[in-house]
Target: diguanylate cyclase
Amino acid sequence: MAETDPRSRRVVVPGVRWLRFPRRLEAEYRDYQCLEAVDSFRVKAFYILFLYMLLVTGIYALAPEAVLGLWLGTYIWVGVIVLAAGVLAQFRALDRYFPLYAGFGSFLAVTLSMAIPGFLDEPESVQLANVSVIYALVIVYAMVGLRFPVATLACWAGGMVGWFIAEHFGRGIDWLMAHRTYTGVSLLGMFLCYTEEVRGRLLFFNQSQLLRQQQRTQRLAERLHRLSREDSLTSLANRRYFDEALDREWRRCQRDKRPLAIMLVDVDRFKAYNDHYGHLQGDECLRALAEELGRYSRRGGDLVARFGGEEFILLYPGVDETEAVRLASRLCRSVRALGIPHADNPTSGEVTISVGVAVKTPADGGTSLQLLDEADRALYQAKQSGRDNWRLYEPPPTVRLVSDNGNRKED
Ligand SMILES: Nc1nc2c(ncn2[C@@H]2O[C@H](COP(=O)(O)OP(=O)(O)OP(=O)(O)O)[C@@H](O)[C@H]2O)c(=O)[nH]1
Model:
């Protein structure tokens, strides 16, 4: 509703009528406007030059021969100014100086156009020269792309200096004619330039609001996405993210014919820890362990996640059994080295972990669920054999059975 109600613009878009946004937005607008203007001037400069060529051709056809030299000699300079501005506009490094050189060029062009009539005698020539003033003003206000204050300053200052030159070095200025052309077209040009800038500012404001809204939405979406993958207590990846990663890495290792290792980590006697120190301290302990385990993600593809409760899981694509048991052993030692007191852990008096390790090469068959199951069995064995250690899952040995009729079967 607010956007469609024109009365609300005054509130929603502060400073548009006065051509001045609040400070930060104003700075952004000026940069944006400058780049837009110079971008379009890169092409327009040559179009303006073309228009000037038309004017010069007209002058050549109509001007009395006696003053032809003065005419062409002067207008060549206007052409040179436009050409110079067009060439400068091709250099991107000079983009931010566009208002400066285009404004100064406009000032010079208006000065020259305004001064010429003061050096001519014939009424026809004077009229023709005043037409060129109109040309210059229309181009500066409507085509160069200067902001309203810059265009206004360039045109009025150029007019004043041109008038000064004509008065002091030429025959003076026909004021009636000057008002009909210079003053009238200046006021019209200012009006057009002002309304164009208001329109441009509204457009810019709406675009920047839209962009800010988009950025906010994007940030929110990224945050939600991160939260949906993160465990809130430990900030490690959560179970859902782990399941996706396991599936992805399983298929990747299958394609690359590489092994995939996982380690299931369980905190020893954590119920007793909670009972003794309280649940909040238990949370603290899980956070400390998570931080330590997090250091064991070394390469892209490695993942450390909270599997649930006091269980963590580590995923290592491309890691074989030798490397996996080496990592598991280091993991147990690192947790022990943390030295978190656990009064009800009879073996060490400190928090320890048990680790179940399983390694499979997906290209040899099986599923990722089997891999998980094997890690779980290995963890069970680690617990059974006294905790604070690791076990690698070993498939049960193949037993050869011989049936009554003498055929061999494999189990
Ligand atoms: N503080 C805290 N405790 C948790 C959290 N999640 C699970 N637990 C506790 O972890 C304990 C796990 O206990 P059990 O599964 O019996 O195992 P355990 O006592 O560690 O014994 P073993 O695994 O056999 O060494 C339970 O008491 C849970 O309440 C949690 O987020 N914070």
Q: What stands out?
A: The chain has a mean pLDDT of 91. Strands lie at 260-267, 303-308, 311-317, 353-360, 390-392, 400-402, 408-410.
